[in-house]
Every structure is written in structure tokens, then in C-alpha cells.
Specification:
Strand content: 15-25%
CATH superfamily of the largest domain: Periplasmic binding protein-like II
Low-confidence stretches: none
Distance between the termini: 54 Å
Number of domains: 3
CATH architecture of the largest domain: 3-Layer(aba) Sandwich
Largest sheet: 7 strands, mixed
Number of helices: 10
Order of helices and strands: HHHEEHEHEHEEEHEHEHEEH
Oligomer: single chain
Length: 305
């Protein structure tokens, strides 16, 4: 897979025209078209709707582009950090693991605030499903993992955690032309298409007690499942169903009107954003960062109390 194809696809999305996109990419129109077709062949589905002008990406095309650009950004970031680490061999690169949706929205602002308060650190991010992140933490492949947790979650050795933020899971769907949810729970007995977190995303388990207590299980018919909140977000914006998603992730969509809340506000689920470490795998810098965060958590608890 040629990762530069994602840049071609992004250019096509912006221009809506094969000839214009080809010119911007310094390619002939036939060569540009062949590159897009080769990408579609690799994915196995149509990524561009050519039946209209300007052309538009299909839902699959949008999803692949978002994932591809994120991958390219990470690769470029890793390259930059590797080069920086090589030029500063005495500096330790702190590696964070995080769930995808945290990596997209919460992590960049949190890291900036941490460096402003603690001091600059050389760091990298690995965004992955939570089980993979915790496996890497256990094996020492990452120094910290940032993840969503229920407020009453228990942490077992050799891991320990500190709270570094908060979020909520809220039910959302696409609006109709009048801005109302196309899937409303107001009509009793109507089944709702449900966009569910996959098994690789433990955050989905936090919804089960809510569904049982509010008698929602029988009303939700799973039509799509994915461990990535970003993938569920795309399907929700396309009007494929209802999804419970992190408020921080969908805040721009709620503001722009691409998504609206549905259901009862009492169906929101409070989340803590915790940072984990493996006490058996540490060094002086990791312990220093951890102590700083523990003190900040203690101060926050005193102020809120």
C-alpha cells in the first residue's frame, strides 16, 4: 500500500474533480485515476462516487481517508521524533499509549498543558485498542497508557493510575432537515439501529448497566460494530444509527449540526480519563512525571472537596 495515495484521495475530496486534483498532484489525469482505482482495489470497495459532479467520496472513502491521514500524521511525527532523539541521545522519549478517540481530541491539548506545567518532554503517541495498549504497558513497550474508565473502576497490580481528565458517553445520531434526531426514542416499541463498540473496546461494557436499567436492550438492534469511536462517529454522521460516543469527540459535530443528541439526558455516562503506569517498569523521568501528576490530582481533589 502506497501511503501517498491518501494524499491523492484528500486532494480529490477537496477539488471534487479528477483533472484538477491530478494537476495539483503533478500527475496526468489518467495516471491519477489509476492511482485512485488501485487504492479502491486494495480496499475492495468503491471510495469515490463518480456519478455526480463534483465527485464525492463514498462513506467508505471518507472513513479510509480519515484513518489514512491519521496514520500519515503519526508516521511523520514518529520520524520527526526519531530524528530529534538521534540528535539528542541523552534524552529519553516518553511513549504514551491511548485509545483512538483520546488520541484524536483529548491527548494533544492535555500534553500541551502538561508540558506548560511540568516542563518540555520528548514524547510519542501510540493510538490503539485498549487491550493492545495495556499489553504494551505490561511488556514495557509504552511508559503510560491513557484510557477511559468508569468512575468506580478497580485497578490491579502491577498497574496504578491517576485521574487526568473527564468525559461523558452521550447518545447521538444524524439530524433531519429540521435539526431533530432522525432516530428518536420518544415512540415506545420502535427498534433503533445501534452502532456498537466492538469487543476490543472495553468502554462499550460501561453501557450495558444503563441498557438494562433503562430497558433499552430490546430496543437497540445492532447494525454495525467497531472498536474505534471514530468509525462509529462516521456511521452516525451518515445516518446509519444511534451511537453512544465521547462528548469530546463529537463536540465539533454537535456544534456544526452534523450530529444531535437523542434519547434522555439521564442516559449520559460519566467517564474518567486515567493515566496508567506499570510500577515494575519505570525510570527516573517516568517516576518524576508520575509524582507530578499525583500531586496535581491530590490538589484537585482538595479543591473540589
Amino acid at each position: 500500500m502506497d501511503l501517498s495515495l491518501f494524499r491523492n484521495l484528500e486532494c480529490l475530496r477537496k477539488t471534487g474533480n479528477f483533472s484538477q486534483a491530478a494537476a495539483l498532484e503533478n500527475l496526468s489525469q489518467p495516471a491519477f485515476s489509476r492511482r485512485i482505482k488501485s487504492m479502491e482495489a486494495w480496499v475492495g470497495v468503491t471510495l469515490v462516487d463518480r456519478s455526480r459532479q463534483p465527485v464525492r467520496l463514498t462513506e467508505a472513502g471518507t472513513q479510509m481517508l480519515e484513518a489514512g491521514l491519521q496514520a500519515l500524521s503519526r508516521i511523520e511525527q514518529e520520524r520527526s521524533q526519531i530524528l530529534e532523539a538521534q540528535s539528542l541521545p541523552d534524552k529519553y522519549v516518553v511513549t504514551f499509549g491511548a485509545q483512538h478517540s483520546i488520541g484524536w481530541r483529548f491527548y494533544p491539548a492535555w500534553l500541551q498543558a502538561l508540558e506548560e506545567a511540568y516542563g518540555p518532554i520528548l514524547s510519542r503517541l501510540r493510538a490503539d485498542d485498549l487491550p493492545n495498549c495495556m499489553r504494551d504497558l505490561k511488556h514495557g513497550d509504552v511508559d503510560f497508557v491513557i484510557a477511559y474508565q468508569g468512575a468506580n473502576a478497580t485497578i490491579s497490580a502491577p498497574f496504578e493510575s491517576v485521574v487526568i481528565g473527564a468525559d461523558q458517553l452521550i447518545p447521538v445520531c444524524k439530524p433531519d432537515a429540521d435539526g431533530r434526531p432522525i432516530f428518536s426514542f420518544d415512540v415506545p416499541g420502535i427498534e433503533m439501529p445501534f452502532l456498537r463498540f466492538g469487543e476490543a473496546a472495553p468502554i462499550g461494557a460501561l453501557l450495558e448497566p444503563l441498557f438494562v436499567s433503562q430497558n433499552l436492550t430490546a430496543r437497540l438492534r445492532t447494525v454495525y460494530e467497531n472498536s474505534m469511536a471514530g468509525a462509529l462517529r462516521i456511521r452516525a454522521r451518515a445516518g446509519d444509527g444511534v451511537a453512544w460516543l465521547p462528548r469530546s469527540l463529537v463536540a465539533p459535530d454537535l456544534e456544526s449540526g452534523l450530529l444531535v443528541r437523542t434519547g434522555d439526558t439521564e442516559w449520559d455516562i460519566d467517564l474518567e480519563i486515567r493515566m496508567f503506569r506499570n510500577v515494575q517498569r519505570s525510570n527516573r523521568l517516568i517516576r518524576s512525571i508520575w509524582s507530578f501528576l499525583e500531586v496535581r490530582q491530590a490538589v484537585s481533589l482538595l479543591q473540589s472537596g
